[in-house]
Design goal:
By secondary structure, this protein is α+β, with helices and mostly antiparallel strands. Helix content is about 25%, strand content about 30%. The protein has a six-stranded mixed sheet with strand order 9-10-20-13-22-11. It has a four-stranded antiparallel sheet with strand order 12-21-14-19. Strands 1-2-3 form a three-stranded antiparallel sheet. Helix 5 packs across helix 10, helix 7 crosses helix 8 and helix 8 packs across helix 9. The longest helix has 16 residues. The radius of gyration is 26 Å and the shape is elongated. The model has no long low-confidence stretch (mean pLDDT about 95). One of its GO terms (molecular function) is iron ion binding. Its cofactor is L-ascorbate; Fe(2+).
């Protein structure tokens, strides 16, 4: 039910508009923001959901000339140049500047809630075909992927191409130097350590890119009888542990730029170099992305010599935590399983398996960006919950 407005008035010499709601609460809106977000056809293009008003035409010191309550569901503002703007009550309520309202909007748009886990993970599972054809299941998949960081889709056909279908379900896949999809199997003269039968340590994929893929898909097409178990660990959970256990080590890993390199030929020839911090943090010091791949960490290390050993000591402590029994979760994919996980949060690895002249283990992999995944999630949310 949309909110009703009881009263509206200008405050602070016209620099703010205060809305009093029928439930007794109040919201205060800066006039420069109201003018910047006028919804009239001259200032806003509804078909694109985009602002037409040029910023150079905005007076940052603007005040209202007159403000009136058109009815309980709308206010009207007249500006000094006689331009008139109208704002719907529901539109205003959603954009209230109170901390509580902003928190609600953040949660609605970005789903920031994290459910941390260790070896006790109850691996979420959803049938692949349900995700493909049922909006409720697809919405549940993406919400769980965002919150938990990993979801197993079961029952896909054990053949190449299923990830292309999954990519179309969300929008599109991320093209990289290894192609739209890529085949993980033991190969002669492998151009990536994943294309061997050896053990893979915990890592995130592609920290050598300035913007690493946000989501990864691994589809099991063929599984070896011996070995080849997959392992995952919640990087955010482990980062929080490191921060409490050794704040100095956390500070080193979240501030030191590490060089990564990937040179070779696949989808095309490539020579990629990048600097990344092992733990990327936000303004509050909270981990928002893990960039760790020991295989592609460069021999070049662009820091003063005296800082090298402390860095290694910090990384060793982080790596030990990743590999501790209480944090890692081990499982073995079956043909038709598709593991979907947050590549910014969940580190993955693989136990070794016996090499053979034939291909005994075959996974198809693909990436998607979080922008694409979150876009589909919001569209599904609107469809499933019938929300604006």
């Amino acid at each position: 039910m949309s909110p009703g407005i009881q009263k509206v008035e200008a405050l602070d010499e016209g620099h703010f508009v205060c809305v009093e709601w029928e439930d007794g609460s109040q919201s205060s809106y800066p006039c420069v923001w109201l003018r910047d977000n006028c919804q009239c056809p001259l200032c806003f293009l509804p078909s694109a959901g985009a602002r037409r008003l040029l910023f150079e035409d905005l007076d940052v010191n603007i005040v209202v000339k007159d403000v009136a309550l058109a009815d309980t569901k709308k206010i009207s503002i007249t500006w000094p140049d006689e331009h008139t703007s109208e704002y719907e009550a529901e539109w205003l309520k959603k954009r209230c500047f109170s901390e509580e309202a902003r928190a609600v909007m953040r949660a609605d748009l970005f789903l920031p809630e994290c459910l941390y886990w260790g070896s006790d993970l109850q691996l979420p599972k959803i049938p692949f075909e349900e995700v493909m054809y049922n909006d409720e299941s697809a919405y549940k998949w993406l919400c769980t992927l965002k919150k938990v960081g990993v979801v197993l889709l079961t029952g896909a056909a054990a053949r190449q191409g299923e990830l292309i279908r999954l990519g179309h379900r969300i929008g599109f896949l991320r093209l990289t130097f290894y192609g739209p999809t890529w085949q993980v199997q033991d190969k002669a003269d492998a151009n990536n350590v994943a294309y061997t039968s050896g053990k893979l340590c915990f890592h995130t994929d592609y920290p050598v890119l300035q913007h690493p893929p946000g989501v990864q898909f691994l589809h099991c097409i063929k599984q070896t009888a011996a070995g080849g178990e997959s392992e995952i660990v919640d990087g955010f959970h482990v980062s929080n542990k490191l921060k409490k256990q050794n704040p100095e080590a956390y500070q080193i890993l979240s501030s030191t730029a590490v060089d990564y390199v990937d040179v070779g030929v696949d989808y095309c020839d490539f020579a990629v170099h990048c600097k990344q911090r092992i733990i990327d943090v936000d303004s509050r010091g909270q981990a928002v992305r893990i960039n760790y791949n020991n295989a592609t960490r460069d021999t070049v290390f662009d820091i003063p010599a005296e800082k090298v050993r402390p860095f290694y000591a910090a990384l060793k402590e982080f790596n030990d935590l990743l590999n501790s029994a209480e944090h890692k979760f081990t499982y073995k994919l079956k043909p038709g399983d598709i593991m979907t996980f947050d590549n910014w949060r969940v580190l993955h690895g693989r136990q070794s398996y016996p090499p053979c002249s034939e291909v005994t283990r075959h996974l198809e992999g693909a990436y998607a960006d979080w922008d694409v995944v979150m876009s589909r999630l919001r569209l599904l949310k609107k469809r499933v919950l019938n929300r604006d």
